[in-house]
Design brief:
The protein is mostly beta strands. The chain is built from 1 helix and 24 strands.
Amino acid sequence: MKKVVVFASLALLMILTSFYAIDLIINVQVSSPPSIQNVTLYSDDNGGTTTSVNSLTPNDEMTLYFEIYDADIADGDSITSITVEFYYQTKPQSTSPDLYVKYTWDGTSWSLDDGVTNSEYADYKWGLDTENTSVTVDTINSIYVVKLVFTPSKIAVYNDTSSWNIEIKAVDSTNQEGTTTVSYNCAFYVEYVSINPSSVSILIAPDGQAHLISDSPVTITIISNANYSLKMGSPGWYNETNDLVYDLTEISIYVDDDDLFNGDEYQVTVSDPTLASPFGSYTRTYWDTVNGAPVSSQPSLYIFIVASTSVQPGKYHTTLSIIASV
């Protein structure tokens, strides 16, 4: 019985040692994340890349150029999405045309989110030129060439200390991200919408006393991306045949934000308003994210005329030029 058992054990051992394995070779390539480079802002419209600038220009089409380097393009990797965010100083929680806007490419088309959803306020939106915006693949150099053609909003906040950030993010097919942030200024923008009334008249005596032109103020509607003051100028006074006959000392113009002439008025003393001293303080047009609408303070001006006793009876006119200034 013992010999039989030994023989059976040897036979089992021979079967086990005659087993053969089939090998599977596994190759793994670890991809590198995309890299964003050569970011340049141009003042050119229609995707032009001629004039590089360091400042956003509200209400004027511009081109943002950048390249996305992807070393694995030849091995089948691809960029699946691109996000370009413009924001002032720090990124807010919600988009708004004065502080934060987002452009997104989903691999096929571009979209824009600037917080303006009511068509009534379309004039405050950022712009996206889809016809000239492009994403082009250069497989030889392993890069995506991107031109984002856009228009900053009229109320994108003015800044001259490079506090507008442009954050660019690219995601590839392996879900790896590449990001970069560049910073720019934003130019001052002002738009004079209306002045009401645009013409005023008054009958006064040449008595050296202040005469209020109207009990109602002259109201100016302004769109501005910065807090501002007003500057005013007048060339002097003309007669009915348009001859300049009196200067601003003989018929003086005073402006105030109330209808009381008590010594704190602004006197117009120069013809060129750019050379004048500033008057008042008004808040920029900002975006109310709760109500989804623009808000700004508007100047309301009371105008006083003082004619010296040397002024002869007659009809005289002038033009009061008013500009907003930061």
